[in-house]
Amino acid sequence: MDTMSTDYYEILGVPRDATPEQIKKAYRRKAMKLHPDVATEPDAGEQFKKVAEAYEVLGDAKKRDLYDRGGDPLGGGMGGGFNGGFGAGGFDFTNLVDAMFGQQAARGPRSRVRRGQDALVRLDLELAEAAFGTTKPLRVDTAVLCPRCNGSGAQEGSKPVKCSTCHGQGEVTHVQRSFIGDIRTTSPCPTCHGYGTVIPDPCLECAGDGRIRSNRTINVKIPPGVSSGNRIHLAAHGEVGPGGGPAGDLYVELDVLPHEIFRRDGDNLEMVLRIPMTAAALGTEVEIATLEADLESADAEDTTATVVIPAGTQSGTRVALDGKGVPRLRSHGRGQLGVTLLVQTPTRLDTEQRRLLRELAELREETTIEGAVQKHSQGFFGRLRDAFAGQ
Predict the structure, then answer these.
(1) Of the N and C termini of the chain, which has fewer Cβ atoms inside 10 Å?
(2) Whereabouts are the CXXCXGXG motif repeats (predicted)?
(3) Pair (237, 178) in one structural domain
């Protein structure tokens, strides 16, 4: 084919100012249509060769520039053949696949040193640890740098050598003859697996990988106010990469365990306090333990709080203690400690107690009562439901 009289732009059906992406798309469309495996036209093979040659020229910036200036982009190669990346008398099938499917084949040897994978582990926390923050030891099983070869993968005194199969290129080319010429396909070298080098004397500790599995303990700092599902990001604490490459990151997912007294609701803590019927009627003050009581290092004055119960308190009443809840994550202040009061009616009375209660009922004219239906709010029954669920 005379390249000087060939209009490659016309063959691909693109304007002379077409972008590289437009040229690739045009070639991909025509190549898939004219490929010998799918085409039925008798001259499809010859058209396919023209399209491939056009893409070889227009798909390469230097060759395209030379062609646009009137030069010979194929360097005066064999008539009707392909030079450069397609080779004499054929074409590189790897380039065809790249163009048709938008893939970029690897070129040259790849490095043995690669970044390691990220790792995810889970850590259980007590409610007080999540609320006030702590530092916890965590056992992790990850790949670490091989201490024997320090990541090289080779025995002491040896080192990787150039692969004799691919001569250090990391890939090999296979040529297959067809009616449209020699088809060349490139693939990673089967001997060195694409590295371009082989390790004749692998390290006995890591078998040439440059890393080993190891259990280790790291200290994880937990900020105040975390909750279940939060993750702590520890950079470079994940898996060490192959060949002693840099470590990935470690993500610690937190799971806050249930507490026997307190239930967490966002930044608030909720608890249930049972009080006698007489205390509810007369009013009183009750000292309760706060969540700080679970901390060994807490000040004594912070471990208790006083709940003021007004006279005539009804069952289901919620008393809020501000600033006694959970510290807000990455912010200031704390939520409330909500105390839901459950009034307990005595189930066993002795003779004297029964007489006194009967006298009280007579004084209050409550010996005979009529049932009364009272409208209620959703919040009242919601608190009762939560309170009984915590029993």
Answers:
(1) C
(2) 146-153, 163-170, 189-196, 203-210
(3) no
Whichever domain contains 41, its CATH number is 1.10.287.110
Distance CA(293)–CA(160), nearest Å, equals: 61
Sign of CA dihedral 136, 139, 145, 146: positive
Domain annotation covers residue 114: no
149 is in an annotated binding site: yes
369 and 344 share a domain?
A: yes
Question: How many domains does the chain divide into?
Answer: 4
Question: Residue 89: its pLDDT value, please?
Answer: 43
- Report if residue 78 sits inside a domain: yes
Q: Are 314 and 380 found together in one domain?
A: yes
Based on the fold, state whether residues 205 and 193 are members of the same structural domain. Answer: no
Burial pattern 194-218, b for ≥16 Cβ within 10 A else e, equals bbbbbbeebbebbebbbbbeeeeee
CB 173 within 8 A of CB 186: yes
- The structure tokens 């692969």 sit at 163
What domain range is 33 assigned to?
A: 3-101
Residue 63 resides in a domain: yes
Sole residue written with tokens 């459950």: 342
192 is in an annotated binding site: yes
Task: Encode 99-121: b = buried (16+ Cβ within 10 Å), e = exposed.
Answer: beeeeeeeeebbebeebbeebeb
pLDDT at 105 over 60: no
Phi, psi of 96 (to 5 degrees): -60, -45
Geometric angle at alpha carbon 302, from 298 and 308, rounded to 5°: 155
Distance CA 27, CA 255 (A): 54
Q: Is 193 annotated as a binding residue?
A: no
- Considering the domain architecture, whether residues 174 and 281 belong to the same structural domain is answered as no
| Same domain for 330 and 232 | no
* 146 is known to lie in a ligand binding site: yes
- pTM beyond 0.70, yes or no: no
Query: What CATH number is given to the structural domain containing 354?
Result: 2.60.260.20
Q: What are phi and psi of 213, to 5 degrees?
A: -80, 145
Does 189 carry a binding-site annotation? yes
Indicate if 137 and 184 belong to the same structural domain: no
Residue 54 burial class via C-beta count within 10 angstroms: exposed 0-12, middle 13-18, buried 19 and up: buried
Question: Around 46, how many Cα atoms within 13 Å sit in the side-chain half-sphere?
Answer: 5
